[in-house]
Amino acid sequence: MMFQAMNSKIILEGMKMEIKERMKEEILSFEQNASRFIKGNSLDFVNNASLHSPVFLKHELFDLLKRSLILAKLAHYYVHPFVGEDMKSAGYVSSFQEREPFMEKPMTVSSNERSLPFRLPIEVLTDRWIMKKQHFSFDFGGFGKGFIIDRMKERFYTKAENWLINAGGDLLVTGTMTAGIEHPVYMGQDMICLQLKDAALATSGKNYRKWNNSHHILNGRTGKPANNGVLQASVIADTVMEAEMAAKIFCILPFKDARALLQKNLPRIAYFIYFEDHQLVTGGNQTLYREMEVAQ
């Protein structure tokens, strides 16, 4: 089954048709509630809530926030879900599907630029209640896509099945399957083929999803597009949310800093980093994949 959601082509393989239909329904419903670009939805209500007043989050949205905050802390807040206003300032005012012209504000920021220590702009009051302490808007981005794909496994998976969920190149595999990482320069061609078992694979890159001359990956500490010499980062992890976060870290921080941070806080990953000078670096936990073939 194939359909469009979350700015991505979603492909479901291996599960029964009844499960595919239920997954499609839940993924589309999640998009309607959690997309920054849909006016009047649950996320829009939270984004427009007043400061210093309790705000109620629906169960699914609160679960997404809770899991995102755990990963954001592990990422030292270089990746976090509070970047909606920064995305707008950079020109990302509509979804990539809508393809509206972007009003880009030129900005060039070194990946080494650091801001003051990050402070959470919310206070979690109780389960499903938060309070906004300063003006911001949520943009869950890859956190959101990873969350709903991981949730499909939690809700529907049985060990008797081999699944593949492909969400715009971000993969969740159950059982053993072969997956490819697209070449960031020769688009449409696989750079690496891997045999994955019960793993997730996510790719972030500065070679696609651009508005005018800037890419969509922001340094969460500066709020501006990151420039660190990495063109594309692919990461294998246990969950899509973890793989998404780690891939973005490799696109934001200098490579050695990113590797050190992730070795400490998220050690169960394998990575494949393609630099702007066309160098390819691989590393991490090689037990997460069975075989690797590098295309010539």
UniProtKB/TrEMBL annotation:
The keyword ATP-binding does not apply. InterPro entries: ApbE (IPR024932), ApbE-like_sf (IPR003374). Keywords: FAD, Flavoprotein, Lipoprotein, Magnesium, Metal-binding, Transferase. Its EC number is 2.7.1.180. GO terms for molecular function: metal ion binding; transferase activity. Pfam families: ApbE (PF02424). It comes from the Bacteria. This is FAD:protein FMN transferase.
